[in-house]
Amino acid sequence: MATFQARRIRQKYAKLFGCKDAPRYPHKGPIFGLDLFFDNQEHAKTFTLLETWTTRFEKYGHTFRANFLGSSAICTIDPVNIQVVHGSNFKDYGVQPLRRAATLPFLGEGVFTMDGAFWEYSRNLIRPTFNKTNVTNLSAFEVNLKKFFDLLPRDGSTVDLKPFVCRLFIDTSTEFLFGESMNILAIKSPARSQEFLDAFHYGLRGTGARLQLGKLDFLYRDKKWRDSIKVAHAFAHHYVDKAIQYRNNRLAEDNSLSSKSYKTDDARHKYVLLHEMALETGKRDVLRNQIMHVFLAGHESSAVAIGNAIFQLCRNPDMWNKLKSEVLDREKEPLTPDALKNMRYLQNIIKETLRLYPVASTATRIAYRDTILPTGGGADRNSPVFVPKGSTVMTPVYAIHRLADCFQPNPNAFQPERWEELKPGSSYILFGWGPRTCPAQNMAEMEVAYTLARTAQEWENIECRDEVKEWVEELRLSTSSRNGTKVGLVWASPQEQN
Ligand code: HEM
């Protein structure tokens, strides 16, 4: 009966909108798509999953249907489809059925996992702060950056930069999100910070396992995971309570927050996201959940981007020298946001890094209603494709960023120069696309640019010391280089040894 009804709907869409079937992934078994599931597991184990997806699109076309463990899925890297799913038909799709249940005990409900009215509410809580003119506080960032430089060897010995850059961004982001740095760049980092980070990462790992289990997530049982969540929540509550105190003080000062006098864009104000959110709501759990979501989304993405940029720069001395010349030519000017934006080669390096190594490796949505993708169906693969309610629409970002139609010449090569002319539109979705685009894009771009410009000032040379020359994927919440970024540093000024 259900199949009959489904066929009727499909026929209606074919007649009304000219929908035709997209090619089908050649599953080996008839049910559940288990072959694809196990194939993905195998490639994940050998760290070749991203390449495998890219090859699948080369073989089966830019849009094809598949079975994801019994659910109907459409895999697409067609930029026209991306524009519709993530942009113009945004409301037909969502993330909540994919993300909410598995992440609920750890994160609660918040901006990253919800759709509809609650997502809009969450977005309105966090977005205004990211829009403030001076939210990217480069002088505060410089304080942390100096500590980062101080930790690195000056004798040319090999160092893996990856964990150090992560520490830099954890300190920077906690200062902005919670109001206090975790200070893990300190030689002896506070035990409390380390306890939170361990708990947070364990919480994240368990949540990842639950996401993989999908509807069977109740099978995941681990006391350590439950305990880690308690530790992470207690840490967040400590800062939430301070934020509520801040709210109460401001209320007392302003007499009434409803006067909205607090909603200024003050260039001298040091913004703390939790404090700004607390001016909108004093609800403890809402604040804790939202800040956990933003910390999750933002605590390592910029660090990963910088690690990947240096991974390429230490393999391409000509590019490193070109970057250095651009930065040193303007050494007398302060590194303001405008100055950084005007360094074209620096900007091109960042764009090219995030093209080849997008931090978020897939963009996946579930259709909330019967809907249509504009292209990918029929023999010529140009006809609209019917998307039944409940289908997964999945885009591997790594694959779309290597589309031969959009990124010529040599889509797989690291070539910052290509950005002199390139305007890729929806084939380039490093920060997402449409209303759900990363709210921190400007801040992240600025901090990544600032860090790279400062490395060009501080380091004369970076020697590649990786045993493995190729970039090997590590798929966690963000996609990074599995082998880190091992380098030998030659400093521009051979000052004090540490
Ligand atoms: C280079 C750095 C970064 C990259 C490449 C990046 C990329 C992304 C992408 C692709 C998404 C969309 C995910 C989706 O489609 O569901 C996203 C969402 C988000 N990002 Fe970022 N991000 C970066 C840094 C940050 C930072 C530093 C923060 C916070 C301090 C942050 C906070 C968020 C939040 C809260 C969302 C969820 C938005 C929503 O669902 O409405 N991101 N980011």
From TrEMBL:
Q: Which residues form a coiled coil?
A: none
Q: Does the keyword Metal-binding apply?
A: yes
One GO MF term attached to the UniProt entry: oxidoreductase activity, acting on paired donors, with incorporation or reduction of molecular oxygen, reduced flavin or flavoprotein as one donor, and incorporation of one atom of oxygen
Q: Where does heme bind?
A: 438
Q: Which InterPro entries match?
A: Cyt_P450, Cyt_P450_CS, Cyt_P450_E_CYP52_ascomycetes, Cyt_P450_E_CYP52_fungi, Cyt_P450_E_grp-II, Cyt_P450_sf
The record's SUPFAM superfamilies line, in alphabetical order, gives:
Cytochrome P450
**Which cofactor does the UniProt annotation name?**
heme
Q: Keywords, A to Z?
A: Heme, Iron, Metal-binding, Monooxygenase, Oxidoreductase
Write down the superkingdom of origin.
Eukaryota
Which PROSITE patterns does this entry report, sorted A to Z?
A: CYTOCHROME_P450 (PS00086)
Q: Which family does it belong to?
A: Belongs to the cytochrome P450 family.
Q: Which PANTHER family match?
A: P450, PUTATIVE (EUROFUNG)-RELATED
Would you tell me the protein name for this molecule?
A: N-alkane-inducible cytochrome P450
